[in-house]
Amino acid sequence: MADKKKKKLPPEAQNYQAFQQDREVKRPVLLNCLKAFLVGGFICFIGQLISTFYVYYFNFTEQTAGNPTTATLIFITMLLTGFGIYDRIGQFAGAGSAVPVTGFGNAVISSAIEYKTEGFILGVGSNMLKLAGPVIVYGVFSAFVIALIKTLLIKWGVI
Amino acid sequence: MKRWLLLIGLLCTLSSCGNESALEPSKNKNEALDLTHISTKDQNTSQQQANQAKAALSNYKEITAIKAVNTSKQLIIAVQVEQNQRLKLAKIRKQLSKEMKEMFPDLKVELTTDKKIAIELEKLEEKLKSGSMSKKSMEKRVKKIVDLSKEQT
Amino acid sequence: MLQGHQTWVFENKPTIISTGVVGGPFEAKGSIPEDFDILHEDMWLKQDSFEKAQQMLMEESCQVALKKSSIEKEQVQFFISGDLINQITPTSFTAKTIGIPYLGIFSACATSAESLALSAYLINSGGADYILSGTSSHNATAEKQFRYPTEYGGQKPPTSQWTVTGAGCALVAKEGSGPVVTSATIGKIVDMGITDPFNMGGAMAAAAVNTIETHFKDRNIDPSYYDLIVTGDLGHIGREVSLDLLKQRGLSIREDQYVDCGLTIYREGQPVLAGASGPACSAVVTYGHFLNKLKRGEIKRMLLVATGSLHSPLSIQQKDPIPCIAHAVSIESGSDAT
Questions:
Q1: Contacts of residue A84, Cβ cutoff 8 Å, sequence gap at least 6
Q2: Each residue of A101-152: pLDDT tens digit?
Q3: Which of B101, B113, C205, C220 has the least C-beta neighbours within 10 A?
Q4: Residue B84 belongs to a domain with what CATH number?
Q5: CATH 3.40.47.40 is held by the domain C180-332
Q6: Which of B67, B86, B112, B116 to mutate to test the interface with A (most CBs of A within 10 A)?
């Protein structure tokens, strides 16, 4: 895909891009993976603590403790986002803070804060899911596709 | 490269298909097992079946704790599994549940691996042991715990 | 006047008689806080929105520039300025407040050089006696416009840059004491097919090289003529790329002669990744830091090459390459300054 696009460019631009790429600072992928693993793991560890807390002190089973745990984590994210800490964690951890539910919460909350100055209906209301919207759309869509495949496979007797 | 991928794929299939039954009972008794046999003076709250279940389940090395209570109609068991065996938790639960149902065909058997149920059953066991529980209130508690275990998100 | 293909030489010596430089809290922690006239502690500047805060920055820098000279607001003929936000509204609202006839311009981060070049041209040709020229940017408004919400925790690549919160304004006059604008080269769009909006330095370097090369060819001078060649906001990557490319083209520019505003304004250790950017970056650093150096006599001649990437969020999403531009303005110390 990228090669196809590159071929259309004049040779001068191709040369320049190669020249530029030699000097470009690359993303430290392995280091980023490690940071993401550690921070993401730490967030999950906190989640496990909260979940265990709910199991021991409230009337939740391991099954049903999931919902209040998620809510608590999102609440913590809300505070961290509002106080301007979460974006720093995000810069450090990358996927580690984006993949857990806290990342989804941060995407919604940060948009809501950002568009507050444009009013509550057309500002917050219509822009709140600007970043999180695609997650919902494609989450629902891929769930639909998978369900369709499973239904067909069962019908044909494969599984 | 391709050969490596094939090899890895093969290993994956082998390792996942290998153990059809998740657990094997061992001959020697598990010593670090957390369970208490309950003897009640009151015949109405006899825990005979629960004790039988505990004895049967204690043959599995991977189980670290068993809590069980029975009424005349119902038997509820909560088992705790060794940490690294939790990867196969669903399989283990299925296997043990089937086994217990076969062992007590005339009781409604409920087997769970949920920590919360284990905590609740432990409290109930304590009460039964001290003998301060009537048949009615025990049945009520058991029903409550069974309902809780069936609650879904 | 016109010399070569795209360069103006100003023989009537349009002079920068005063400047106004305003910055935000992040700039206050940078490496050149003493070169600012006003530094704010608060990103909001006590306004309702970041856009209003940016307008406030621009207004203050105009007021400071006027106050430092003995010129009244009514004596100023034109206000030439622009910024990044939507239809350059922060600048237009500033023009409403100060009430000076207004020319709004846009060339993203090259706006500072464009406005200075136009002002110098108008003054030089007798079109005006006094012109205010400047530009502003605000980190939060630019992030909102071009990237993600301010508090969103996305990871930026090491090539991305930090938009400066601030405003810089110069009062250009027909006569007076101060640094003199001697020539200007208007750049053309250079598009090398780079589509990554997180690597603007790398994209803009080509435009900078093009303009610098043209400037020296049109004026028929050697790079050693200038004590400093100041690029706008190329950052680490753009600076390295452009310097190597200039050397490849046979221009001998020394390492210490070639500085970048985006690398001057912040300290090591501030989380700005590849460097600073934004229209205010070149304006603030040039009108503050480098003009002070000129006035102190540490340098005599400098060439400001402000670079801009003229993309919009829409063009990026439609996968269009980033069109880049660079304008050059040479500033030399006046006859009465040493």
A1: C151
A2: 999 999 999 999 999 888 899 989 999 998 899 989 999 999 999 999 999 9
A3: C220
A4: 3.30.300
A5: yes
A6: B116
